[in-house]
Amino acid sequence: MAAYSYIIKGGTIVDGSGSPMYKGDVGIYGEIIKEVGSMGRGRATRVIDATGKYITPGFIDVTNHSDTHWTLFTYQAQENLLAQGITTIIGGACGSSLAPIVDQRAISHIQKWTDASNFNINWRSMEEFYNELGKRSIGVNVGSMVGYSTLRNNVATDNVKELARQDLESMKLLLKRSLDEGAFGLSIGLSYLPNTLATQEEVIELARIVAEAGKVVSIHMRNEGRRLLASVAEVINIARSSGAQVHIAHLKAIGRKAWQDFPKALTIIRKARKYENLPISVDFFPYLRTGSLLSNLLPEWIMEGGQPGAIAMLSDKSKRESVLETIKSLTLHYDKIVIAEAQKDKKIIGKTIADISAQSGLSLEETFIQILVVNGLSVTIFSKTLKSKHLVTIAKEPYSMFASDGVGDPKGRKDLTHPRSYGAAPRYLDRLVRKSKVLSWEEAVKRMTAVPAAHLGIAGERGSIKKGAFADIVVIDPDGIRDTATYNDPYQYPKGIEYVFTNGRLAIEKGAPTGALAGKILRRG
């Protein structure tokens, strides 16, 4: 009988700790790394030659949207993530999770990303949600945050008004129960309704419950544009007042008017960490175009009535002139806003709003409104609003970590997924390590593995190449690593990710999926 299931032999081990890389072998037995070092003539069912290759832990994606896009159920292989070397994802991001569901309204918030009308939901609690996922074979390891929107939609009768005290108390009970059942923390998307209605005091009360559980509060900031500094200050105050570990999801400065404030935002975070010892971290994706909702460009007062109210207002002829004038004042660059996904009208995908306007004969502003109304606001766009220098700056910050902000997304769809869903991890390594040498291999891998594992409370189990850890492992060609997904053709696997193991099973072999579905459901006790 062989001593190992696999021996990955003759590679260079980048173990996730940040320590210098070294030559060695990795022996896998079942789900676990059994030995690290020199296997000599050790016997294995299969030996993989890793000469000239790097052996790293599987990458951990701390901000992922496969759950709220429903692809955990429709595309369980999640092969586009595995092909990047991502072996663990954390859903429930940006204020939206799939549990708990006490009231069916709780799931309404994902309508902006996918049509939820025909979904079969047979769970109520976070524990039941995890159990339901556990009945399925999934390609990656999956854990979840608890979304503020989900909590609020369960208890509030009106999601366009401030929260009643009794509803907040009910939310706190639901949050505590979900954390006890293994959720990794609380996520809040302060730029989305009903999250936008959350006061700092309300968020702090919820965050204190998370702090008591020793878990994480992940925040999509209230404003990543002109009010960037005020939004960062709000995050700092939440951390200071609650005592919780606070994380800023996909930190960025959107638009030229916000770019000048970005260095100041980082200075605020640094000082809070250094002088107040506040446990604040951030993640980012290595792209200059955001993948966001078109409705996010609307003035806040139009969205105050939620999705139904906004559609009614945009459709109301008596209010149309006022709405058009307001939109004109936004000075949007319609020739740079590309439609990536549209729930109803698939003919407009891949076109700019300027292109659609020219074809329809409508003004740019009228075209903008019509696209939103026809598709029930469910429209995703690509918009080039970020600055490359900022990616380099964030990457150098020791409290930053990798995230895709992407989705497990199958090939063959008519919509355009953001290329980060197919190439974020290789791009991170190619652009920030191989080409620019902004980060060393050791430091970059640490930000993708051990740092997020510690952040999530799963260090020791995941995120490291060491004896006794789960065998989530990636074998990389350091000279060939690169992403190939583009905005026009995003459904392309990267180069240089040669082998990927999930819990000891070979999921990617020579860059291609094997069909292995070896992911586990992760709970944080």
Kindly describe this structure.
The protein is α/β, with parallel strands linked by helices. Helix content is 33%, strand content 20%. The protein is built from 18 helices and 21 strands. The chain has helices at residues 71-74, 79-82, 126-134, 148-155, 165-180, 200-213, 228-242, 256-259, 262-275, 300-303, 306-315, 317-328, 353-360, 364-374, 388-396, 420-435, 441-448, 450-456; strands spanning 4-13, 22-29, 32-37, 44-49, 54-57, 59-61, 86-91, 141-144, 146-147, 185-189, 216-220, 245-248, 280-284, 289-293, 337-342, 379-384, 400-402, 473-476, 497-502, 505-509, 512-513. The strands form four sheets. Strands 1, 2, 3, 4, 5, 18, 19, 20 and 21 form a nine-stranded mixed beta sheet that branches. A six-stranded parallel beta sheet has the order 9-10-11-12-13-17, with helices on both faces. Strand 10, helix 6 and strand 11 form a beta-alpha-beta unit. Helix 16 packs antiparallel against helix 17 (441-448). The chain starts with a strand and ends in a 12-residue tail after the last strand.
Please tell me the overall pLDDT: 93
Q: What is the annotated CATH architecture of the domain at 59-288 and 386-418?
A: Alpha-Beta Barrel
Largest sheet: 9 strands, mixed
State the secondary-structure class: alpha/beta
| CATH H-level homologous superfamily name of the domain at 59-288 and 386-418 | Metal-dependent hydrolases
Radius of gyration, whole Å: 23 Å
Number of separate helices? 18
CATH class category of the domain at 59-288 and 386-418? Alpha Beta
Measured by DSSP, the beta-strand proportion falls in 15-25%
Low-confidence stretches: none
Residue share in helix: 25-40%
Inertia-based shape: globular
Number of strands: 21
Cα end-to-end separation: 36 Å
Q: Could you say what the CATH topology of the domain at 59-288 and 386-418 is called?
A: TIM Barrel
